[in-house]
């Protein structure tokens, strides 16, 4: 099973969803490490309670030295023999060098239907834009923020009376279904990228889509 590190900055509910999925013997990946850039991330306790090794590399300690921060992370990842990175609410922008080093082996979950609403405050922005469909995206990480070949998306309706909290909760439930599925595809070697577009082998129909 491929050894995966989940990278978190906070609550870690997506990381917990990956842990739950990886508990199944047939799941093709093992969450071998939970790495946080903040010592106060609540998800660290969740991971430790499930017996998963945790590590903290405080990004704040490195100030603007992003390469230094990433070198410290890389040293931890090397020690744990990690093969795939799953960003799970990891709120740091990574350098081109780090992204290139993990090309094809680093995925992210983002709370919008990319390429709509990259960046922060996605639910408030979806409400302000009046979109009728919103959702989440799992994508391979490339150099731009919230960019890279899309592996999977799930859509939810925006309902009359929604506020940021109700919409976020509806999307989050889909995130917790989508991320384990997409990570399994990548870990099983079923993802191929051509011309910036990802194809998932053996997924039929509207591939990589949960409605
Ligand atoms: C999730 O909604 C995730 O999609 C989002 O942060 C939240 C983390 O929650 N990620 C981003 O916005 C990245 N651009 P979690 O810590 O409970 O998984």
Secondary structure elements and pairings:
Layout: E1 2-8, H1 13-22, E2 29-36, H2 43-49, E3 54-56, H3 66-79, E4 84-87, H4 96-101, E5 106-110, H5 122-129, E6 133-140, E7 150-157, H6 164-187, E8 191-194, E9 197-200, E10 209-210
Parallel strand pairs: 1-2, 1-4, 2-3, 4-5, 7-10
Antiparallel strand pairs: 5-6, 6-7, 8-9
Helix pairs in contact: 1-6
Bound molecules: glycinamide ribonucleotide.
How large is the count of helical segments? 6
The averaged pLDDT comes out at 96
Strand order of the largest sheet: 3-2-1-4-5-6-7-10
Outline type: globular
Which structural class best describes the helix and strand composition? alpha/beta
Small-molecule binders: glycinamide ribonucleotide
* N- and C-termini, Cα separation: 29 Å
Share of helix among residues? Answer: 25-40%
The description of the largest β-sheet is: 8 strands, mixed
The low-pLDDT segments are none
Radius of gyration (CA) equals 17 Å
**Element-by-element helix/strand order:** EHEHEHEHEHEEHEEE
The fraction of residues in strands falls at: 25-35%
Q: Could you tell me the number of beta strands?
A: 10
